[in-house]
Every structure is written in C-alpha cells, then in structure tokens.
Amino acid sequence: MTTKPTIARIWRGRTRPEVADEYEAYNLAEGVPPLEKTALGVQLLREDREDETWFTTISYWADMDSMTAFTKGDPQAVHHLPRDKELLIELPEKIQIHRIVLDRKN
C-alpha cells in the first residue's frame, strides 16, 4: 500500500538572475537528493522575474513525525546548504509547513 502524504514542507529562496542557473544546478545536486531519499516526493520550482529568480522546494511527508526525524529536530528550522549564503540574496528564515487538505489528480 502506498503511503499518502499529509504534510507539505515548503522552502523559498531567491537569487540574482545571473546566478540562477548555477543555484538551480547546485540545489538539484546538493539539496534535492537527501529529500528524494526520505520524503514521499519533492518538487523544485523556479520563477524567473526581471530582477530576481525565486526557487521553491516542496517536499511531501507522511506525517510530522517522519518530517521531524528527517530534520533531526525542529521541522520548521531552515537547514541551509553550504553555498546558500554565497548564492542567495538573503538566507530564508522560515519554512512553511502545510497540512494537505486535498490531493486530487485528474
């Protein structure tokens, strides 16, 4: 039986446009793989704007306990990648945690 996610953990960060491709590749290589090993699913979204590029990582979890085990503590704490300070405009201070109310596919 497949476990359905009940929790979405959402991280958002932004870069300058000139380093957006570099950050995307870095996040795919360093940030996403640990999530792929543990979470039920992960998405990396990118929004290119004129003066900045936003990245959103959404990971899906069976419950708060599984997410807390992954984060080794406070699931709302931000776990920055080593190069985030160099590549991001500012270090995000928060993670959003949402309870999944509806998960329907057409």
UniProtKB/TrEMBL annotation:
InterPro entries in the cross-refs: ABM_dom, Dimeric_a/b-barrel
ABM domain boundaries: 14-75
Pfam families noted in UniProt: ABM
Domain of life of the organism encoding this protein: Bacteria
Lineage: Bacteria, Pseudomonadati, Pseudomonadota, Betaproteobacteria, Burkholderiales
Protein name per the record: ABM domain-containing protein
